[in-house]
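Please check this protein record:
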Amino acid sequence: MAAVLAKGKTILTNAASEPHVQDLCRMLVQMGARIVLCDPHRAVISGPAKLHGSELTSPDVRAGMAMLIAALCAEGKSVIRNVYQIERGYEHLADRLASLGARIARRD
C-alpha cells in the first residue's frame, strides 16, 4: 500500500505470485493506483496515485486490511464486503479506527 502513495516506482518480486496479491492489485487499480502485473512474479507500482472510493471485496485478512487502508487514504466513499475476513485478525477494529477519526459505518 505504501508503494501506491510513495513517489517513484516500486518493483514487487515474488509477492505478486500469490493469488490474493493479484486480486489486491486489481482492486487498487480500480481505485486509481498505477500497477502493472508484469508476470506471475513481478508487479511494478508507480506513485504517488490519487485514490478514489470504490466497492471492494476482501479475499482474506491481509489483503482486506490493505484494502481498508487504501479506502481510508482514498477520497470519497468505499464499501468493503466480506469484512469479517478482516475482523478475524483485529479486535474492535471499527471502534479503534473511529477513535482515530475514521468515518466507518458497519452494515450487517
Observations:
- The domain at 2-99 is CATH 3.65.10.10 (UDP-n-acetylglucosamine1-carboxyvinyl-transferase; Chain).
- Strands lie at 8-13, 34-39, 42-47, 55-57, 79-81.
- The radius of gyration is 14 Å.
- The chain has one domain: 2-99.
